[in-house]
């Protein structure tokens, strides 16, 4: 293909050129783009849209599949398939992993196992939005102010949180539907018992389209949340990022997404800009090719684990050695601890919606601070069991380091954190059982508590510490972070609304100052 023809065919200002490379395993062709974003989750989606709106061509590199290209791939909680786990031969739900797969496959849910903690993340175009419960929760203003004292809190609540809610199409469940449908019997029982135990409850907004859900209930449309779909992906109803930010970004014609492209290393180029070593995978997750990408501007949106691991590895192994010592620090699990109760009076019903809509909110009690979702347990049978995911006061003393012997990035997370979380969950379940009967859910977790399960990894490249006030990496021009790595360990609420609002704030500042 001739150069002119190539540029015409590409919507990007791509200038391919060929030079020899010392590493023969890499393709000799270098792919050159003005701006590259790593990942396609919340932080990445915001960055892509806002850059493209300013007329800038953007390439996004995503290690997982583009699920929107496959027809209804996602499996139910009760029947996971190879699409449900990233490169595993067994299911990886927080409990009940009895399902085996014939072959490994780059599925939509990944679990990264570190010492003392197992961290769950979404894989594919849309990142965590593909597998999460959709709960779009604004943190309390006082918590946000304590965590980010340097930010204009009022402006966030007036501008960036409402903007994030609008863009993500956040909506609320209708009261009549909630009160009447058998699919939320589990939630009504959980709510009534929490109040009986003296706790306050509140409805929480969600990105799942509740109008669609009502049609699911009346049989007008294919079922998704009402038919056991959530952490292995939703085939319908969920307004994941591929239907919001990424859809709008692609509609500009300036954004290209390359799925099954995993970034392995970042290097600073001698005369400015960045070089990325990238592994292309085939549809089965097997390495297909090694590629080199060059760009002037690099945005990290690979999530707290992805972005931080890349920087820690690149700081040790490549030319990013000037990154400051804050990179890799202040990581936490948002105080996540799972627990449950067996033998719940009133039962929880066989039919359950997979989308949680009510939380128990005890954040006004500083000695027993928690926000807990009343989570579904969609087993398609009466289990007499309720499930809770608590968000407690988070420790942010986790840190990442490069283990030279193992040649990989590891996360250090203290066992003391786990014992504190255990104590918090025990006290909550004790209060509930004292008031309403039931036992700790030994059928779900060892000792009834999953203190090592994390759905909300946060931190590692914290705003104002590893970066400046807009997420620019100190010491490296045109290198930015816009994802969950910016939040130091916890936010006292489910995090994606805050991640999106922070990304909007950072992109506004970056575009005005660096791309003006
Ligand atoms: P994220 O959404 O994780 O996206 C990162 C993307 O980068 C992924 O697509 C990765 O595959 C990709 N990537 C990583 N490394 C590389 C690499 N080296 N090369 C190329 N691509 C790479 O990042 N939060 C809520 O607020 N409400 C909920 O209801 C909720 N429920 C959850 C339920 C589950 C089961 C899970 C796992 C999480 C849940 N979360 C929830 C957390 C939420 O999804 C998470 O905080 C955000 O997705 C994080 O957004 P980021 O933009 O940081």
Features:
516 residues; alpha+beta; FAD/NAD(P)-binding domain; eight-stranded mixed sheet; seven-stranded antiparallel sheet; disordered N terminus; binds flavin-N7 protonated-adenine dinucleotide
Description:
The chain is an alpha+beta fold. It has a single domain (30-514), classed as FAD/NAD(P)-binding domain. It is 25% helix and 22% strand. The protein is built from eleven helices and 22 strands. The chain has helices at 3-9, 42-53, 141-147, 153-167, 175-180, 185-196, 210-217, 245-251, 303-317, 415-436, 496-514; strands at 17-18, 29-38, 58-61, 109-114, 117-122, 200-203, 255-258, 261-268, 274-281, 287-300, 329-332, 336-342, 358-361, 370-375, 386-392, 399-403, 408-412, 439-440, 449-450, 453-454, 458-460, 479-481. Strands 1, 2, 3, 7, 8, 9, 10 and 22 form an eight-stranded mixed beta sheet that branches. Strands 6, 12, 13, 14, 15, 18 and 19 form a seven-stranded antiparallel beta sheet that branches. A three-stranded mixed beta sheet has the order 4-5-20, with no helix packed on it. The longest helix is centred in the C-terminal third of the chain and has 22 residues, at 415-436. The radius of gyration is 23 Å and the shape is globular. It starts with a helix and ends with a helix. Residues 1-24 have low confidence and may be disordered. The protein binds flavin-N7 protonated-adenine dinucleotide. The site of flavin-N7 protonated-adenine dinucleotide has 40 residues, from helix 2, strand 5, strand 8, helix 9 and helix 11.
């Amino acid at each position: 293909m001739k150069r002119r023809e190539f540029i015409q065919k590409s919507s990007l200002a791509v200038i391919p050129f060929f030079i020899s490379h010392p590493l023969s395993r890499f393709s000799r062709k270098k792919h050159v783009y003005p701006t590259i974003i790593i990942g396609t989750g919340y932080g990445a989606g915001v960055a892509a849209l806002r850059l493209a709106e300013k007329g800038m061509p953007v390439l996004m590199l995503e290690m997982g599949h583009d699920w929107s290209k496959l027809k209804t791939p996602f499996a139910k909680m009760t029947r996971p398939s190879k699409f449900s786990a990233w490169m595993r031969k067994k299911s990886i739900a927080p409990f009940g992993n009895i399902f085996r797969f014939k072959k490994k496959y780059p599925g939509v849910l990944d679990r990264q196992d570190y010492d003392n903690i197992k961290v769950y993340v979404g894989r594919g175009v849309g990142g965590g939005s593909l597998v999460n419960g959709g709960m779009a929760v604004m943190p309390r203003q006082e918590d946000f102010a304590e965590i980010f004292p340097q930010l204009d809190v009022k402006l966030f609540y007036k501008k960036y949180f409402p903007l994030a809610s609008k863009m993500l199409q956040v909506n609320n469940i209708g009261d009549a539907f909630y009160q009447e449908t058998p699919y939320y019997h589990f939630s009504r029982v959980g709510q009534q018992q929490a109040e009986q135990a003296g706790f306050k409850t509140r409805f929480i907004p969600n990105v799942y389209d509740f109008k669609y859900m009502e049609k699911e209930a009346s049989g007008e449309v294919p079922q998704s949340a009402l038919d056991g779909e959530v952490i292995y992906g939703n085939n319908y109803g969920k307004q994941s990022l591929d239907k919001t930010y990424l859809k709008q970004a692609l509609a500009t014609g300036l954004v290209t997404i390359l799925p099954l492209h995993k970034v392995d290393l970042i290097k600073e180029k001698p005369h400015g800009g960045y070089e990325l070593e990238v592994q292309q995978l085939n549809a089965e997750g097997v390495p297909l090719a090694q590629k080199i990408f060059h760009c002037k501007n690099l945005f990290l949106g690979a999530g707290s684990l992805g972005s931080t691991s890349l920087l820690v590895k690149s700081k040790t192994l490549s030319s990013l050695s000037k990154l400051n010592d804050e990179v890799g620090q202040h990581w936490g699990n948002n105080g996540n601890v799972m627990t449950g109760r067996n033998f719940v009076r009133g039962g929880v019903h066989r039919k359950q919606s997979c989308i949680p809509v009510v939380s128990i909110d005890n954040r006004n009690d500083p000695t027993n601070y928690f926000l807990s979702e009343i989570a579904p347990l969609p087993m398609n049978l009466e289990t007499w069991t309720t499930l809770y995911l608590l968000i407690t006061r988070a420790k942010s003393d986790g840190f990442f380091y490069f283990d030279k012997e193992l040649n990989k990035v590891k996360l250090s997370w203290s066992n003391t954190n786990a014992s504190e979380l255990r104590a918090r969950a025990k006290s909550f379940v004790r209060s509930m059982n004292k008031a309403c009967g039931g036992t700790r859910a030994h059928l779900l977790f060892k000792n009834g508590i999953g203190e090592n399960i994390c759905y909300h990894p946060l931190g590692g490249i914290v705003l104002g510490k590893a970066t400046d006030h807009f997420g620019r990496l100190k010491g490296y021009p045109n290198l930015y972070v816009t994802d969950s790595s910016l939040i130091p360990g916890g936010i006292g609420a489910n995090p994606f609304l805050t991640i999106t609002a922070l990304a909007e704030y950072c992109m506004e500042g970056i575009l005005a100052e660096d791309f003006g």
